[in-house]
């Protein structure tokens, strides 16, 4: 799991008394911080895709540990199985995400202005630029938004006062292929399948394993290197 949260805090966040949890409304900064830690615990469980019944089993382990009760399993023996379970659950999530991503890519690929790159990404022209296209050695200034196929944003450079400065040869393969086909002043949608993004690992909690990513890129300037 990604976050190591003290067991005492975890027990407080998950709660051992249902009525207390139901009535809890954090008001002070300290209570809100503890509540935020509870949300962090939940994020660390994201790739396990727990059912309600499974979540209750997890809470039972936390509660027993907090109250120093006798362990019902050998932690040393089963602790190593945690990452194995996470990987297995992540693969299930990835397969579903890839299926949805494939359908999304097929839909975008037949839209007007779309073309497929050598590696299988889709580049769709939204606004044709009138300047040069960047080379692999160039630095570029861009504004962009990164989103999931359902439209959920996970990155947004437009919140900054200045465009993002990026070196082409340090970009992901999907971006390297896409950005070199956008002219200065142009704006394009770049759809990156999971094998050109975060693959089966994803970037929890927001980007699931196997997720297809969609970028809205506006190329504002090329800063040629000497």
Quick description:
38% of the residues lie in helices and 19% in strands.
CATH architecture of the largest domain: Roll
**What are the low-pLDDT stretches, counting only 5+ consecutive residues below 50?**
1-20
What is the general shape? elongated
Radius of gyration: 23 Å
Fold and architecture overview:
This protein is an alpha+beta fold. It folds into 2 domains: 7-72, no CATH class; 102-223, Chitinase A, domain 3 (Roll), CATH 3.10.50.40. 38% of the residues lie in helices and 19% in strands. Helix 1 packs across helix 4. The chain starts with 6 loop residues before the first helix and ends with a strand.
Secondary structure elements and their pairing?
Blueprint: H1 7-14, H2 18-23, H3 29-44, H4 52-66, H5 75-79, H6 81-109, E1 114-116, E2 122-127, E3 139-148, E4 153-156, E5 164-167, H7 173-179, E6 187-192, E7 213-223
Helix pairs in contact: 1-3, 1-4
Features:
7 helices; Chitinase A, domain 3; alpha+beta; disordered N terminus; elongated; seven-stranded antiparallel sheet
